[in-house]
Design goal:
The complex is a heterodimer of chains A (324) and B (324).
Chain A (H helix, E strand, L loop, with lengths): L2 E14 L2 E14 L3 E5 L6 H8 L7 E10 L2 E2 L5 H7 L4 E4 L3 H4 L6 H10 L7 H14 L5 H5 L8 H13 L5 E5 L7 H18 L2 E6 L2 H7 L2 E6 L2 E7 H6 L4 H8 L39 H5 L5 E2 L5 E2 L9
Parallel strand pairs in A: 3-8, 3-9, 6-7, 7-8
Antiparallel strand pairs in A: 1-2, 1-4, 4-5, 9-10, 10-12, 11-12
Helix pairs in contact in A: 4-5, 5-7, 7-8
Chain B lengths: L1 H28 L3 H5 L6 H11 L5 H13 L13 H36 L4 H15 L2 H15 L12 E3 L2 E3 L4 H33 L3 H8 L4 H30 L2 H6 L5 H10 L3 H29 L10
Antiparallel strand pairs in B: 1-2
Helix pairs in contact in B: 1-13, 5-6, 5-8, 5-10, 5-13, 6-8, 7-8, 8-10, 9-10, 10-13, 12-13
The chains are: A alpha/beta (324), B mainly alpha (324).
């Protein structure tokens, strides 16, 4: 599969008063056309910043200072603001976490949808754009879309609003959608619906999807491949089936252990010891060393590199062979 | 909506009634208008006659009763000085004050909102810091002093703009105003700017604060992620949201522009209501003072109502409900 997005050695740093925060520090991965990739990590691991780096919307004081983001062979970092604006929402769309906050409360749904179409097509008439918007709403399962177009965001429930966001993201048939925790703020039942619809839509339209989440269970349900991020780096990467059945990095194992599941009923849930280290004062060597139960001398002095294993698997750990 | 307006009107009548009581008692406590009105050489019989004619020999409660009865018939009393109905005197002067207040408001909005948005978008630039420093000056300099300085600078030293009066007026669509003639415009500019300065400063600060808050919202980022041009993000997504607090303040302050234009009108000898009220207070012309204050109360109450209605137009979440 020809990769549609190739990120290599991406570095997005925040230049704060307290020091340089390396939110994304050498992230590399790729997404094939029509592929669904999960990006998993705790809060503050840099997963959302990775998403925003791709569409060039990192808020100051953050800045992309290194690496390449190749989209269909073109490095997005080299594009001008204007060219980038044409990519955003057109070739690469994004869905945000909190559907209550992503739609402008004072604008009608149709205004917010039509502008997304007209931003990339100055020839289309308002009427045609409206028809396309209506069809897009119908596609994500909103009933009587014609009336709903005239509504304001507050007249929708959270799940409906997220569907509207998804419809907006799909409006221009992008090649890639970045979904930043799109189901985290939703009820579990709605979560399931949105996930399966999202998956169906992407499969039908052959849209690639980067699904950012902290929830491994969600990834297991939707993605082809998974990247696990910790402290600004990808620590493990592989096909979902392999990675979840047989996690190699101690952090991934910890994450897997902390997912509540049916067959562990009654047993206390495992948890990863300690806290995420402050991104401003990461230890020398491996960032996970303080929480790792397989830690060795080497971990505190040297930074582990990515090891490429078979079957598209990558892991960033010295002790992969030690881990049972 | 109708129920809402009705209920508010009822409340307004109560406010009006209470105000009339306070005002009436208030003006009756200050000074003796008879001293101002009669010839110092008049004998006691003549003084008694004048007092009787003006109804000042009756107890205050009785005077108030007559005032209320007459007020219901649209008669707010007769000026002691001019012998004409107080209401007529005030209405004659009202257009001059209205045009001054409206022109000031226009200045405050037209300059204040763009300056405030700019200062909010680029809070650290030199221009923004200058704007904000200027707005502090606008707040803290006394109006009469600024008025005098404006006259000294633009009228006396530079001789660009006239310093007193309303200039030439013209009538269009049944409205007589000085803004329809070039001469009139040159006359209104300085007093309007003087009056606008305080409001301009508050509009700038409000617009800036609103911008700083709204620009961080997810819906702004989402609009950018859709590929919407930055100019549209500011003009549509941002502006409509910051207009909510701005409209509230502008509406409420418009009343104070009218009510407190007295200082500016006095400095620039602008023939409006404010100048009339100052003269009437000097002359202890009680009916005019009372009538003026009544009219101001009506204006404030009406503006409050309009602001509430506008609010619901701007913010779809605040649709006024008819049921209480």
């Amino acid at each position: 599969m020809e990769p549609i997005l190739e990120i290599s050695d991406l570095q997005t740093h925040f230049f704060t008063k307290a020091g340089i925060l390396r939110a994304v520090d050498g992230v590399s991965f790729e997404i094939g056309a029509g592929e669904i990739v999960g990006l998993v990590g705790e809060s503050g691991s840099g997963k959302s910043i990775t998403g925003f780096s791709i569409i060039g919307l990192v808020d100051s004081p953050g800045e992309i200072i290194g690496g390449t983001i190749k989209f269909k062979g073109e490095d997005l970092n080299d594009l001008s603001n204007e060219q980038m604006q044409h990519v955003r929402g057109n070739r690469i769309a994004m869905i945000f976490q909190d559907p209550m906050m992503t739609l402008n409360p004072v604008l009608r749904i149709e205004t917010q949808m039509i502008e997304a179409i007209q931003a990339h097509d100055n020839k289309i008439s308002r009427e045609d754009a409206r028809i396309r918007s209506r069809d897009a709403l119908g596609l994500v399962g909103i009933s009587s879309p014609d009336e709903r177009l005239r509504a304001y965001p507050h007249q929708f429930s959270g799940g409906m609003r997220q569907r509207v966001s998804i419809a907006i993201a799909m409006l221009n048939r992008p090649d890639l959608i970045i979904a930043d925790e799109p189901t985290t703020a939703l009820d579990v039942t709605i979560q399931g619906q949105v996930i399966s619809e999202m998956q169906k839509l992407c499969r039908e339209t052959k849209t690639a999807l980067l699904w950012i989440t902290h929830d491994l269970a969600v990834i297991a349900g939707i993605a082809d491949r998974v990247c696990v991020m910790y402290a600004g780096r990808i620590v493990e990467q592989g096909l979902v089936a392999n990675t979840i059945a047989n996690p190699l990095h101690p952090y991934t194992r910890g994450l897997m252990g902390s997912v509540p599941s049916q067959n562990q009923r009654g047993k206390p849930l495992q948890q990863i010891n300690g806290m995420v280290p402050s991104m401003l004062s990461l230890p020398r060597g491996c960032a996970f060393q303080n929480r790792c139960s397989y830690v060795t001398e080497k971990c505190s002095t040297e930074r582990p590199d990515i090891t490429h294993l078979s079957d598209k698997r990558q892991v960033r750990c010295f002790n992969v062979s030690e881990v049972p | 909506m109708t129920a809402f307006i009705l209920r508010r009107s009822l409340q307004s009548i109560i406010v009006l009634f209470v105000m009339s009581l306070i005002v009436f008692v208030g003006v009756n406590l200050v000074g003796d208008p008879v001293d101002m009105l009669i010839n110092p050489e008049a004998d006691q019989a003549e003084i008694d006659r004048v007092i009787r004619d003006l109804g000042l020999d009756r107890p205050v409660s009785e005077q108030y009763w007559y005032f209320v009865v007459n007020a219901f018939q649209g008669d707010l009393g007769r000026s002691f000085i001019f012998g004409e109905p107080a209401l007529k005197l005030i209405i004659q002067r009202m257009p001059a004050t209205m045009e001054l207040a409206l022109f000031s408001l226009l200045m405050a909005v037209v300059f204040g909102i763009p300056l405030g948005i700019y200062a909010g978008l680029k809070p650290n630039s030199k221009v923004s810091k200058t704007i904000m420093a200027g707005s502090i000056l606008g707040f803290s300099m006394p109006t009469f002093w600024v008025g005098i300085i404006l006259i000294m600078f633009f009228s006396v030293s530079l001789g660009w703009l006239p310093s007193t009066g309303r200039g030439e007026v013209a009538t269009y669509f049944g409205i007589t105003s000085s803004i329809f003639t070039l001469d009139g415009l040159s006359h209104i500019f300085l007093p309007a700017f003087n009056l606008a300065l305080f409001k301009l400063s508050s509009v700038i600060r409000l617009a800036r604060a609103g911008t700083r808050e709204v620009i961080l919202q997810d819906y702004i980022k989402f609009a950018r992620a859709k590929g919407v041009a930055e100019s549209r993000v500011v003009r549509v997504h941002l502006l409509k949201n910051i207009m909510i607090p701005v409209v509230t303040i502008i509406g409420l302050e418009f009343g104070s522009l009218i009510a407190f234009s007295t200082v500016t009108e006095t400095v620039f000898a602008w023939p409006g209501m404010g100048k009339l009220i100052i003269d009437s207070i000097y002359n202890l012309d009680r009916p005019v003072v009372v009538a003026y204050l009544m009219i101001i109360v009506v204006i404030f109450v009406t503006l409050n109502l309009i602001v509430d209605i506008l609010y619901s137009v701007l913010d779809p979440r605040v649709r006024i409900k008819g049921v209480s």
